[in-house]
Design a protein that fits this description.
The chain is mainly alpha-helical and 526 residues long. Helices cover 52% and strands 9% of the residues. The strands form 5 sheets. It has a 3-stranded mixed β-sheet with strand order 1-2-8, with helices on one face. Belongs to the cytochrome P450 family.
């Protein structure tokens, strides 16, 4: 019946067919049906292929993969990538997550589709602690972010500004060396030493530039240190509201409440420092010849670079907060990792110290102008960043529209993690990937480019959202390490195996804090 109907319509529309035999008509119809079915299937296949999501492990209804998530996510993600490939997905509550573990996929999202993947996926705690997303690290991609990043990179962390406040850094590094000098022969906790030194250095650069301010800021530094440790803790704490946005209203774990309380304390400390500085300017207290700190630069900066709008006090505070939060823990962690690796590689320690003696001499103190000549130390830092990147999954990206990555669909608003830790240990990309071999960066200098162009080495990320603090991070890690190794010999108190295990807290920490015993080696008294 249907056959007759189709044939009738074909015969009516094409009169010449009318003259064909029934067999020929049937053959023609079957051919048309086969061709159109084939075309239909190809089209559907192409469409579904485009729409297919990456493979990945199944989870449970509602909670998804949440109950199976292990504490050490970079290692777990590396294992899942072995099974599912360099791009895989899973669900955490309502949230679709995708993990990328190959240089070519990193290139796709940070070079080829950089703008689409330039949004962040701010957690509840991060949103609160950045005054509602007013900072650089967590704010959405757009003109606001661009303006703030320009202020940060060009106005605050410019080479000339960093040079201008070198004395502030030097003061604090000398204090750290003096502290170790008083503890010669006793075990020193390197994580605490590195963290206190880095926090002191950063806070001193932020607002300790004038003598009066510095005396007052001593108290602010002490108060801030207490609240900052809690801020770091809450930023790394898993929060159910991040996986089920509908639960944000209820704040079941009280993370938002706690973050608000911490912000209030931090804010009042920063406010007190700012008010003091504004008052000094009003009272015309002389600041001639005194180093400009970041607060002073920000107070003198009146307009945002692109839009020419007035910069607000909230924006100034958000930038200051980014420097403390982004710069302290990461840098301190890298100092601890580099020391741990060197302490367990006697040969590396000897090479570091020989270079320091050749470049600086035993009778002098380390100065920042020595740093560019310390090539072996630089290779040590690069190797520590390769094996133990401080932010091993980078800061998650969030695509602003549905896109294709590695041939799979990554829908809008997916949380995209880049497993830099796994890429930087991939045996396909690195010789002896698990060995600490600084020499690899002396021989193949292109491997050590971490400015975002070398997608197999991305400790600072890549693309337009890559780390904004590299110039300061480079200086601080090398300067503190050089000073510690130049002044002291160090012996670890733990064995290598247990000492090099990792703990993921958003920042990649040493599971067992490094304890090391210093003995004096330089003649120069600080
Ligand atoms: C060794 C130390 C450091 C490491 C390993 C590190 C690593 C990173 C990484 C991996 C990112 C995310 C990049 C991406 O998503 O592609 C990032 C972002 C950021 N870092 Fe760092 N960082 C360090 C030190 C610093 C310092 C000292 C500062 C501040 C002075 C800083 C400020 C920032 C800011 C503001 C962002 C957000 C950039 C944006 O979203 O536009 N970091 N960092």
């Amino acid at each position: 019946m249907v056959f007759d109907l189709i044939m009738n319509s074909i015969q009516t529309s094409i009169p010449r067919l009318y003259k064909m035999s029934n067999v020929a008509q049937a053959a023609l119809l079957i051919s048309i049906l086969i061709i159109s079915s084939f075309w239909f299937l190809v089209t559907i296949f192409k469409k579904t292929k485009k729409r297919s999501f990456p493979p990945g492990p199944w989870g449970l209804p509602i909670v998804g993969y949440l109950p199976f998530l292990k504490a050490n996510m970079p290692t777990q993600f590396a294992e899942l990538a072995q099974k599912y490939g360099p791009i895989f997905k899973f669900r955490l509550g309502n949230k679709l997550c995708v993990v990328l573990s190959s240089p070519s996929l990193v290139k796709e999202i940070t070079r080829d589709q950089d703008v689409v993947f330039a949004n962040r996926d701010a957690t509840v705690a991060a949103e609160v602690l950045t005054f509602g997303g007013y900072d650089i690290a967590w704010t959405a991609y757009g003109s606001y972010w661009r303006n703030m990043r320009k202020v940060f990179v060009r106005e605050i962390l410019s080479g000339s500004n960093l040079d201008a406040c070198y004395d502030l850094r030097k003061d604090e590094v000398i204090k750290a060396i003096e502290y170790v000098g008083m503890n010669v022969g006793k075990p020193v906790r390197i994580d605490e030493l590195a963290f206190q030194t880095e926090l002191n250095v950063i806070l001193r650069m932020l607002w300790g530039g004038t003598h009066e301010a510095n005396q007052k800021s001593e108290k602010a530094v002490a108060d801030f240190r207490v609240v900052f440790a809690k801020i770091v803790n809450i930023l790394g704490k898993p929060n159910i509201s991040d996986f089920f946005p509908i639960l944000r209203w209820f704040d079941i774990q009280g993370v938002a409440k706690e973050a608000h309380a911490l912000l209030q304390v931090a804010d009042s400390i920063v406010d007190a420092v700012i008010n003091e500085r504004v008052k000094m300017a009003e009272d015309s207290i002389k600041t001639d010849g005194i180093k400009k700190d970041f607060l002073q630069i920000l107070l003198e900066l009146k307009k945002l670079p692109d839009t020419g709008e007035d910069i607000t006090m909230l924006q100034r505070k958000a930038i200051l907060m980014d420097i403390v939060v982004g710069g302290t823990d990461t840098t301190a962690t890298m100092i601890e990792w580099a020391m741990a690796e060197v302490l367990h590689n006697r040969e590396a320690m000897e090479k570091v110290q020989k270079e320091l003696d050749d470049v600086i001499g035993l009778g002098n103190i380390v100065e920042e102008f020595h740093l560019p000549k310390l090539h072996y130390l630089e290779a040590v830092v690069k190797e520590a960043l390769r094996l133990h990147p401080a932010i091993p999954l980078l800061v998650p990206r969030r695509p602003s529209k549905s896109s294709i990555v590695g041939g799979y669909t990554v829908p809008e608003n997916t949380s995209v993690f880049v497993n830099a830790w796994a890429i930087q240990r991939d045996p396909e990309l690195w010789d002896d990937p698990l060995q600490f071999k600084p020499e690899r960066f002396l021989m193949e200098s292109k491997n050590g480019d971490y400015n975002g162009n070398n997608f197999q080495y991305i400790p600072f990320g890549s693309g337009r959202r890559m780390c904004a603090g590299i110039p300061l991070a480079e200086k601080m890690v090398k300067y503190i390490l050089a000073s510690l190794f130049h002044s002291f010999d160090w012996k670890p108190t733990t064995s290598k195996v247990e000492d090099l295990s990792e703990k993921f807290d958003f920042v990649l920490r040493k599971r067992i804090p490094l304890l090391a015993i210093p003995t004096k080696r330089t003649r120069k008294q600080y």
